[in-house]
Amino acid sequence: MMASNTGRFLCAVALMATTQAALSSCDDDGGANQGGGGTGDDGSFLCDAAHAEWQQCVDNMVQWCHGEGDDPHFHWGANCEDLGVDCVELSESEAVCVDSASSCTPPDANCQDNTAYNCLPDGHWAVEPCTSSCTLHDGEAQCEQQCSTTAPDDACAAMASTAEQSQVVENFDDVFSEDYHAELGVAVAVTLPDNAPSHIHLPVSSSGEFVVFLDTADVFDAFLDQGGNDMLAVGGGANSVCANELPDQYHADLIYSGSGDPVPYVIRFNAVPTQTVTFTIVQQCR
């Protein structure tokens, strides 16, 4: 998706939206996400399949188009304002956080304080703090991915294995106990209470897009943060690989704000008649 004239660093730029702690939920933050397509806040382009993964600068933040599927929408990416640098549009489809006061010699790249620095052709550093680890690959500083490039396939594979048994709890304040824990990348089975909302938590070790795939439709309600704030998941509809086994899925951008240990987020289930539900959660690369 990146133009070749911007230098070898741009492979790393593609990861910025997934690793930056400024990620927001898949919602309408500042008008960023508009189902069925829509222009960005400054009207730069329509978010649709033709503009999938395109980026732009809005309010000194990177905004990118999730154009795949039936519900194209915008996501917030890196918050350059919080980094004290500038959001720069390198082309009509690329945007990146740039330290305009810096100077470097292309194609220099390095990792410092777990931050990826890649020198742009104009002699300024592109800056990407890593929530995982920063490493050098073929002269590029990159944040290592902690995500899946084949999320639908991985979800189907997880569901083909024996499910781990866990529990849900009705009281939100109790959900952070290890008794109510769902690990990523495995099938998890829970029994929902009769006609009462219920909760389970999941660990988040890096910011990104998380997808819950479920074997039962209409039982998922929301992703919540530790304060109970709705992360405004979008989705619905079957897994594209194993639709019969996974007829429902939802995704949201979850922010890692920790300093080593995983940050818990919560899945809330709807109030439905008591039943056993099996699901799996995958962090999806963009």
Descriptive overview:
The chain has 286 residues and is mainly beta. The chain folds into two domains: 140 residues, no CATH class; 134 residues, Sandwich (Jelly Rolls), CATH 2.60.120. The strands form five sheets. A six-stranded mixed sheet has the order 11-12-19-14-17-16. Strands 4-5-8-7-6 form a five-stranded antiparallel sheet. The chain has a three-stranded antiparallel sheet with strand order 1-2-3. Strand 2 and strand 3 form a beta hairpin. The chain starts with 9 loop residues before the first helix and ends with a strand. The N terminus is likely disordered.
Indicate the radius of gyration in whole angstroms.
19 Å
Distance between the termini: 11 Å
What letter string, H or E per element, gives the SSE order?
HHEEEHEEEEEEEHEEEEEEEEE
Low-confidence runs (pLDDT<50, min 5 residues)? 1-41
Overall mean pLDDT stands at 83
Number of domains: 2
| Shape, per Cα inertia axes | elongated
List the helices and strands and how they pair.
Blueprint (H helix, E strand, L loop, with lengths): L9 H4 L2 H4 L35 E4 L2 E6 L6 E7 H4 L2 E6 L2 E6 L9 E4 L2 E5 L5 E5 L4 E4 L2 E4 L7 H9 L4 E2 L22 E5 L5 E7 L3 E7 L5 E5 L9 E2 L12 E7 L8 E7 L5 E10 L2
Parallel strand pairs: 11-12
Antiparallel strand pairs: 1-2, 2-3, 4-5, 5-8, 6-7, 7-8, 9-10, 12-19, 13-18, 14-17, 14-19, 15-18, 16-17
